[in-house]
Amino acid sequence: PTPDEKPAVEEDTTVASAEDSAPVVEEIAPVVQIKKVKTVAVAAATEVPAPQVVAAYAEPAPAPAVDPVNTASVPSGWAIQVASSPKQSEAQAFLDKTSKQAPKVLADAAGFTVAFDKDGVTYYRARFGGFGSKDAAWNACSALKKKKIACYAVQQ
């Protein structure tokens, strides 16, 4: 480090005379700056337990078998039924076909199937739900009918 100030040197007023044949050596004491340092006592280190490693990517547990027909979330409010079929796959296919034929009309609607029994036979209703009012469902159904898609509005 470089010093902040130039060290002060006292001048020696003694002048050597010509008589003195020995060389004069002046001893200059070095200037030492003393800084006060605060001493702090440090407590003895206690043993720290090693960090535990947690697996970041755990394998997900297998999902229990779920019947999607009976446990599917059904939108509340009003819905439009567009088909009914004895096979769920046919009802789902009709939902896909209808949403492709009228994407603007059904943009905010959610397609779903609902199972029901009639004379010991299970049928699946193909519906679009999420309409906030009877008028909204009827207006959407009217727009579908203009596209030659049969439907009717039902309250969930």
From TrEMBL:
Pfam family, one: SPOR
Region ranges (Disordered): 1-21
GO MF, one annotated term: peptidoglycan binding
Domain SPOR: 72-156
Signal peptide limits: none
Domain of life: Bacteria
InterPro entries according to UniProt: SPOR-like_dom, SPOR-like_sf
Protein name from the UniProt record: Beta-lactamase
Organism: Mesorhizobium amorphae CCNWGS0123
Lineage: Bacteria, Pseudomonadati, Pseudomonadota, Alphaproteobacteria, Hyphomicrobiales
